[in-house]
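Supplementary Note 3. Input sequence used for the single-chain structure prediction.
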Amino acid sequence: MNMGKAVFVICVVAGTAASALTQNWIPGVIGALLGLYFLYAIRVVRQWEKVAVLRFGRYIGLREPGMFLMIPVIDTLSQIVDQRVRVTSVSAESTLTRDTVPVNVDAIVFWVVWNAEKSILEVQNFVDAITLSAQTALRESIGRHELAQMITERESMGRQLQKILDEKTNPWGITVQSVEIRDVTIPQALQDAMSRQAQAERERQARLILGDAETQISEKFAKAAEVYAENPVALHLRAMNMLYEAIKEKGAMVIVPSSAVETMGLGGMLATSSLAKKQ
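The predicted structure, written as discrete structure tokens, is reproduced below.
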């Protein structure tokens, strides 16, 4: 339209100048009429756009990027088709998963018009069609997946949605390049319940690990008892080693019953340790 306005002004100015020079009003009228024609006849399509021309309502072809002429009143133009990659945001609120968990899911769809003619002639409003189709497909996909799958398998879910949408939109001259799941949220009450469940599960695992450790320790002690029962000298040596470890630290004091000292013959060892400390 800017180009048409510029040509209109030029024609009017030229016609007025010609009328002034010739002292005749006809060049001015011709210039004004010619300017009005170009005002509505000149159209410009940008590099990433295409538009269809309809003559008396019948499709006669697409117009490529650049300037072209149309016949005012007789010709009409369709909506301009942007052939760049577009992004559409879709969401599904309070949709039940396969395991009946209400979730809110946000996703983005990357799509591009690869055939402008089909997108104009085959569907009334392809932008709304893409948005509504993506929203419906997202809800259906949520119903087929469990909550854990939706959280851990977002990429797989996005590929499935892309395939479903591409099959639907391809006859319209539109290709869905990818679908990305941005966010999956659940109600706060359910989040708290799942957090408590996870905490209880961790506590259960900790107790099982502790029980296994106790079992292993008791088995080792049972085996050690069998060895010491068959070899009393080994038991005495172990007891002496334990006492030595207890009293070797500075300031440590260990009280041992006299019966144990006599039984294990520890008197000599204790005396020797005391003399070593004094020296």
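The longest strand covers residues 102-113. Strands lie at 42-45, 49-55, 58-63, 66-69, 75-77, 81-82, 86-96, 102-113, 174-185.
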